[in-house]
Specification:
The protein is α/β, with parallel strands linked by helices. Strand 4, helix 4 and strand 5 form a beta-alpha-beta unit. The structure holds NADP nicotinamide-adenine-dinucleotide phosphate.
Length: 252
């Protein structure tokens, strides 16, 4: 039995809800009593999860590399649910590529999804939250960042660069909101290794999961979703900036 969540009844939009950490966060926030928009490209997965979670879960397809698709996602959320109170910028990916002779397309995809889409979604959510002040909630933007925002893992220069950018975007937004006297809060959660589809996407090889996650007990998506739920549950005067979570056996 979960304790009542202070944001129960509010609307949370979770990007990357078709898999891994995003699906776990969507599940957790539904259990917390929030109304949740599940957003990603794979609509079949979103519809299956929405059916499992019940009437407070709403599947909406988006391609975060396409700004028009992002704007449509927010318009549909306004039309169906009255707008966003909480944004979980979770969608993201790494591609195994070098900086000295890597693929421009791999760099572009990481930058577009991990940095640019996160920034566009944040702007749209803040617009919603401001428009709906009357609802009495100041709102929250939570970025799923990475331990790669805090040190550069071997051969992951561009992925790490995108997560260092997320760290800067967290603090930059905090400063802007502070200067504006806003009550909107911004936070990050920075995981180490979590068993998801991330490794298969990173290596372009579904069998990479065993190599990446099989050497010791890594984090489960639920470890991150519980942290996200806790960050959002803090009282209005308490702004969590970053939560760093590693598997106990992860060296760096
Ligand atoms: N797993 C780890 O070890 C780890 C560690 C630190 C940080 N993280 C971060 O955690 C977040 C979630 O990753 P995960 O581990 O859960 O990986 P995952 O299982 O591969 O999930 C990634 C999610 O991002 C979505 N996505 C990717 N490109 C998209 C696009 N163009 N448009 C819309 N959605 C897109 C995917 O949905 P569709 O493919 O259906 O569009 C999927 O739902 C990422 O930001 C990642 O950087 C992961």
């Amino acid at each position: 039995m979960r304790l009542p969540h202070p944001l129960a009844g509010r609307v949370a939009l979770v990007t990357g809800a078709s898999s891994g950490i995003g699906a776990a966060i969507a599940r957790c926030l539904c259990e917390d009593g929030l109304r949740v928009v599940l957003a990603a490209r794979r609509l079949d997965r979103l519809l299956a999860l929405a059916e499992e979670l019940g009437p407070d879960a709403h599947a909406m397809q988006v391609d975060l590399r396409d700004e028009a698709s992002i704007l449509t996602l927010f318009e549909q959320t306004r039309a169906r649910l009255g707008g966003v109170d909480v944004l979980i910028n979770n969608a993201g990916l790494g591609r195994r590529t070098t900086l000295s002779d890597g693929s421009t397309e791999a760099w572009r995809e990481m930058l577009e999804v991990n940095v640019l889409a996160l920034t566009i979604c944040t702007r749209e959510a803040i617009r919603d939250i401001r428009d709906m002040r009357a609802r009495g909630v100041d709102g929250h933007v939570l970025h799923i960042s990475s331990m790669s925002a805090h040190r550069v893992p071997h051969a992951s220069g561009m992925y790490s660069a995108t997560k260092y950018a997320v760290r800067s975007l967290t603090e930059g937004l905090r400063q802007e909101l502070y200067e504006q006297g806003s009550g909107i809060r911004v936070s990050s959660v920075s995981p180490g290794f979590v068993e998801t589809e991330f490794a298969a996407v990173y290596h372009g090889d579904p069998s990479a999961a065993e190599r990446t996650y099989g050497q010791y007990k890594v984090l489960e998506p639920q470890d991150i979703s519980e942290a996200a739920s806790w960050v959002l549950a803090q009282p209005a005067h308490c702004q969590v900036h970053d939560v760093l979570i590693r598997p106990t056996r992860q060296e760096r």
